[in-house]
Please model this.
Amino acid sequence: MKKRWTAWALTLAMLAGALPGTALAAENGGVPPEPAARQVAALGEEPAANTWYEAQWKDFRNSDDNLGVTDAETPRTAEEAALRWKSAESLNDGWDGVSPLLMVDGDLVCTAGTAIYRIDSAAGAIKAQGVMTASNGAWGNAPLAYGEGKIFVPLLDGRVQAFDAGDLASLWVSEPLGGQCTTALIYRDGYVYGSTGNSAPAKFFCLAAEDEDPAAEDEIKSAAWTAYEEDFPAGSYWATPIVVGDAVLYGTDANGGTAVLFSRDRHTGEPLGMVELENMGSVRSSLVRSGDRLYFTTSGGWLCSVELDAKTGELSGLDCVQHENVGYVTSSPVIYDGVVYYGAQGCLVAADAVTLAELRRAAFPDTGASVQASPLLTTAYTEEGAVYLYVTQNTTPGAMYVARDDGESLTCSALYTPEESNWCAASAICDGEGTIYYHNDAGYLYALERTGAPQRRCRVTFAVEPAEAEISVAGAAAERDGTFLLGSGTYAYTVRCEGYVPASGTLTITEAELDTDRTVTVTLDAEQGGGGSTASKIRVTVRVKSHDQADCGGGYTYRGNKKAYTTLAERQLSVPKGTTAYEALSAALDAAGVDYSAREGYVTEIDGLAEFDHSSRSGWMYMVDGILPEVGADRYRLADGCEVVWFYTDDYTKELGEEKESGGSSAKPAETGAATAAFTDVPADLWCHDAVMTAVERGWFLGTGQDTFRPDDPMTRGMLVTVLYRMAGSPAAKTAGAFADVAADRCCAGAVAWAAEQGIVTGYGDGTFRPDAPMTRQQMAAVLARYAEREGLDTGTRTELSGFADGAAVGGWARPAMEWAVAEGIFRGGADGALYPAGTLTRAQSAVLLTRLGEKLD
Model:
C-alpha cells in the first residue's frame, strides 16, 4: 500500500513544526527540505508520505545549473582505480539498455526495458524492482529524476511514471503527452519538466509531482500545462531543460528545419523568449548555466552560449563557434574556472567560456568515434594545479577515460576497461567518497573506487614493420609510441600504414603477466602491386548530379526525374584499391574545383546545395553501378570499373527500390531469370536457392553486385528493416529519422524511419540505431513478431521451447516472440536440436525466415 502525506496533512504538519527544517521552507521557495527519515503517522491519522530521501545524484547533471561538478577525490589514474564491483549479470532487456544512473539514499537507481531497479552501491546487488506501465518501457538514454521521495521515469509511449523511491511501487502515471518521452526529466519545487519528441505533435510539459490519490497505483496525472509550437513540431530529443527563477528553458530538435531555444514561465507555460538556431543542427545537450549565460552544444558541431535575464527569462546575445573536426556533438558542456569542456568526435575539447575559442583538446584512441557522454569534473585536486574529467567514448570496449587539464595541456588515458566489450555513451556519476559509477551498452554496471595501492600492469611494446605504422589498442592510451600499460584482460588492437593491408588482432594479459614486459610483433603485408608506395590501382568513374529548386518545387527524385538532373562534375579516376565511395567523391570534386562539406563521411553539401535545402527529406545520396548500397559511403569500398553516381534527392524515402540505372530512365527491377542467372554464389543446388530467388523476385532483397548475393554475409539491422520496408510496400514515414548514425544518404534511412515510427524496431540508449550491427536469431524473432502483428497476424500462438537443447537460453524479452515463431514454423532449429538464440544470422538464413513469414502473410 502506498503511504504519503496528503496536501492537507502536510500543511498542518508544517504549521505545527512536525517536519524537520520547517523554518527553512520559505527560503527554499515554499518547498519543505527533505528529511532524513520516514515520517510515521499515529494511529487514526492520515497515512505518512513516501520518504523524502537525501539524493547524492538527483538527476542527469545533479545540479540546478546542470553542471556535473563534484569535489570528491575520484581516482586520477588507472593505477589509483580499483573495481569495487560489477553487475552479476547484464540488466539489458533485449535491445532496451540501461538508463543514466541516479543515486538516492546511497543506492543506485536505473531503468532497463520495462523494469526499474534500486541497486546497492556497496556491492551491486538489486534491492528493489518495479514495473513500468508502458509495454515498451522507458527509452534507455532518457535520464530519470528524483524529488519528493519519488523517481520520475520518461516512458517511450509519451507518458511519465512516478515511483516510490524506496520500494519502487508505482504512484501515478501521466496522461499521454504526445510522441515519445526522449529527453531528460528535471524536478524543481514540486514540479516535473520534460519534453516529448520523435513525432508531431511533440510537447514540452509540466507535471505536478504530488500524488493526489495515494490509494491508486494507476492514478492518471494530468499535465499542469503543455506547450506545442506548430512552427517547430519536432519537440526535443536527449536535451535537458533548466529552471532559472520563474523561467524554464529548453532546446528543440531541428528535424530538417531550425532548432530553437525556448524560455517559458514555468508556472503557466507562457512564452518569455526564444532564439532560433539556423543551420546548426539539433540541441541534444543539457542547457548549462554559468553566471548570466547558458551554454549548450548542437548536433551540427556548434558550441553556443546565450545571455539569460534571470528576472524576466529573456534571451539575448547568442554566441556560437564551430571548432574544427568535432563532428556530431551531443555532449553536455561542463564549465569550471572560465573553461568550457565538451565531448566531440574522437576528442575532449576545452574552450574559453567568454570567447568560446578553443584552448586545447585531448585525443581519444578511436579518432572516428564520438565522445557523446557529458563530462564529470572534480575540483578535488585543484591544489596540484589541475582538474580531472571523466567521460566515455561511444565505441568498443566501453572504457571509462580520465582527462587531466593543468591549464597548459589536456591529456587523456583509460581509467578502466571492462571485459564486457560494447559501445558506451553513458555519463559517469560519483558519490561523496569519489567512487565512480557507470555502465556500457553490454548492460553491466561498474563501480570504480579510488585506492592508494597502485594497480598492477603489464608493459606491452609493439614491434611493427614498417616502423612508421600506427598502433591503436581499444580502451587504452599509449604510454609512449608503441608501448601500452595494460591490466589483466583481453584487448583488441589494430596496426595501420598507408600502402599496407591493416592487421587486427587481440591479446590477452593474464594475472601472471602483470608487472612484466611483453612484446607483440606485427608485420604488415604490402597491398597488391608491390610495396607500400606502389599499391595496386583501380579505375572508377564518379558523376555528381543536381537539379534546380526553382524547377522542381521541392519534389524531384533521381528515380522519377532523372532527365531533369544536370551534371556538376564527372571524373574518371585512378585510385588505390580499397578506396571508398566517399574518398572517390572527394577526389573528383577536388579535381573539378567544386566545394563540398561532410561530417564523418556523410556528405552534407555540394556546390552550395545542402541537406534539407529543398525539404525535410532532401539530401545527397549515392549509387554504385546503379544500386543503392546498404552502407554509408565511407564504408563502401569500390571495385575496379565501378561507376559511382551522387545525386541530390528531394525525398530520400522515394529513392528506395531503385535497382538498376539504365538508359537514363527510371530503374526497373531485374526479372527473376536474370537475377537467378546473375548470382554466381547461389547455385541451383544450394540449400537456400529457392528462398533467395523468391525473396529477390518479390523485390525484398537485392544483390550485392552484378552477379553476387553473398549468402554468407551477416544480416545487419539496416538490411532487415530495409527488407521489411519493401515487404510492406515501401510506405513513406511521417517523420524524418532521428538516429544519429543513420544519415539521409544511407539506403536504409527511409526504412529505419518507418520501422521506428511503427514500433517494429527501437534504437539504442545513445540515440543510435547501429544499422551495421548483425542480427541475432532471437532479435530477428522479436522484430518479425512485431512486424507480423502490424500486418494483422495473430501472434498469440505459442509452442514451448523445452524441446530444444538450448530453449532455456532464449532471453525472457524474446521468449514470447520465439515461441510464436516456432509455433508458426518460421524458426525450426538446427539438426542438432538447438535454436542458437544468440547466434547471428546470414543473408541466406534471413531470406529463408522472411520467405516463411511471407507465406503466412499471403
